[in-house]
Amino acid sequence: AQKVTQAQTEISVVEKEDVTLDCVYETRDTTYYLFWYKQPPSGELVFLIRRNSFDEQNEISGRYSWNFQKSTSSFNFTITASQVVDSAVYFCALSEYNNNDMRFGAGTRLTVKP
Amino acid sequence: DSGVTQTPKHLITATGQRVTLRCSPRSGDLSVYWYQQSLDQGLQFLIQYYNGEERAKGNILERFSAQQFPDLHSELNLSSLELGDSALYFCASSAPGGTEAFFGQGTRLTVV
Q1: CA distance B15 to chain A (A)
Q2: pLDDT tens profile B46-72
Q3: Of the residues A1, A4, A71, B51, which has the maximum number of CB atoms within 10 A of its CB?
C-alpha cells in the first residue's frame, strides 16, 4: 500500500523567511497522484496542488512552489517570504491510479511568527 | 467554499449511542471519501464510494458503516460509540480519474 512520510512535525519561522516542507512517498504503482493540502486553524482542508507521476515539472504559484523528484520519491513544498497567514498544518497526500484511497502524511504544523 | 456540504457541524453524544453523519458532494462528483482526524491518529482514510458502490476501504471499524445513495449523497453511521471515537470526520468528493478531492468543513463528534 502507498505511504506518505512528513518527517517534520512542527516548523517555526519568522515572517519573511523561506520554509520548505518535506514529503517522501512510497508506491509500487507507476501512475499516481500527489497532493498538498492546507489546514488552517479554522479546520477546513484546502486543496493546494495536484501533481501526476508523469509530470515532473516544478510548479510555482505566487509565493508557493513545489519540487517533485521521482528519483528521490519526494514532493517538497516551499513557501517564499512566509507570512503569518501561512500558519497552518500542511498535509501531503498520495493516490494511486489503481487504488482509490488518498493516503495522507501525518502533517507538518507551520507557525509563522511576526 | 469547497462545494462539499457536511451536516451536522458539531455533535455531542453519549457512549454507546449511534449517530449518522451526512455528506453532499460537489455537483458532478461521483466519488465520496470519508476521513477521520483525531489528535493521535492524524488524518485516516475510512472508506470511499463511487457512484453508489464501495470502491476502497481503509481503517474503518466494524462499528462504522457508510453508504452512498442514488442522489450521490453519503452517510457515515457510527454505532456503539466510544470515547475514542471523538474526532473530526471529513467528507470529500472528487471527479473520476485521480483528481483532487475537495473537503467539507467536517463534523466534530464528541463522545462523552
Answers
A1: 25
A2: 999 999 999 889 889 999 999 999 999
A3: A4
